[in-house]
Amino acid sequence: MLIFIEIILYLYVFVVGAVIGSFLNVVIYRVPKEISFVGGRSFCPSCGTQIKGCHNIPIFSYFQLRGKCADCGAKISLRYPLIELCTGLMAIFMFALYGVSLQWLVAFAAGAILICVTMIDFDTMTIPNGLVIALMVPALLAFFFFPQVGILSRFIGLFIVSLPMLALALFIPDAFGGGDIKLMAVAGFMLGWQNTLLATFIGLLIGGAVAVTLLAKKTKDKHMAFGPYLCLGIMTALLFGDIIINWYLGLFGL
User: How many alpha carbons lie under 13 Å from residue 177 in its C-beta half-sphere?
Assistant: First the structure.
């Protein structure tokens, strides 16, 4: 009986996460176009027709409509159900880590915002200020609900990566975007200085591998969005930072 209740609970958490993922799709599409995402029903990007409620069910509707608009038949990007699926899985994973708690809410809110940052940066090579401001909310709440990170560590984290990034951007054109710098400042306060360094290392490692691949392809456009890899590093550090750092120090008997 308890197992059945637990399955129902996890299923409920997944559905909530997928629904929020559907909202994230709206934010990702509308924010760069400066369209309000707080009002108005969803519409088809191709024909502009409002999407019916029965055709707007997360994940399910994509397969129900066979990946096409019900009105104009235009192809619907697979990215929409994938974001809904990933958000639902993220909700379950964080629920498994934190259970029914405000820590889950803070971590999930940060993850949802970082998904938006990732996709918009991929699309536009920019990180909207509004999303960085939104990230300040879970970052500030983390001070109360993740007390294991001290206030001094948080203030050091605010500058330990963002300040060097700013210096590099001033002396080396296009070294880092302003959005990347502001993102790491807010993330630094949320994570503390140790996990901020870890997040940056992960971002540089993965982003560097992607950059090398792009250079090897000898494409004309060598620019790439760095924010998505920083976001991946931030989420990894938020969820597993202490475990990774303790494991690394343990290799040296520290």
Answer: 17
Exposed, middle or buried, 43 (CB in 10 Å: 0-12/13-18/19+)?
Answer: middle
> How would residue 220 be classed by pLDDT, with cut points 50, 70 and 90?
low
H helix or E strand, kind and range, residue 216:
helix 193-217
**Single pTM value for the model:** 0.92
Domain locations along the chain = 1-100, 125-254
The pLDDT tens digits of the residues spanning 115-135 come to 999 999 999 999 999 999 999
Distance CA(120)–CA(177), nearest Å, equals 14
Which residues are 43's β-sheet partners? 50
Question: Tokens for 203?
Answer: 């971002």
- Above 70 in pLDDT, residue 73? yes
For 12-62, the pLDDT digits (tens) are 999 999 999 999 999 999 999 888 877 777 777 777 778 787 778 888 888
Kindly write down the DSSP assignment for every residue of 64-113, as one continuous string: HTTTB-TTT-PBPPTHHHHHHHHHHHHHHHHHHHH-SSHHHHHHHHHHHH
Cα–Cα distance measured from residue 19 to residue 36, given in angstroms and rounded to the nearest whole number: 19
User: Which are the contacts of 236, defined by CB distance < 8 A and separation ≥ 6?
Assistant: 198, 199, 202, 244
Helix/strand/coil for 193? helix
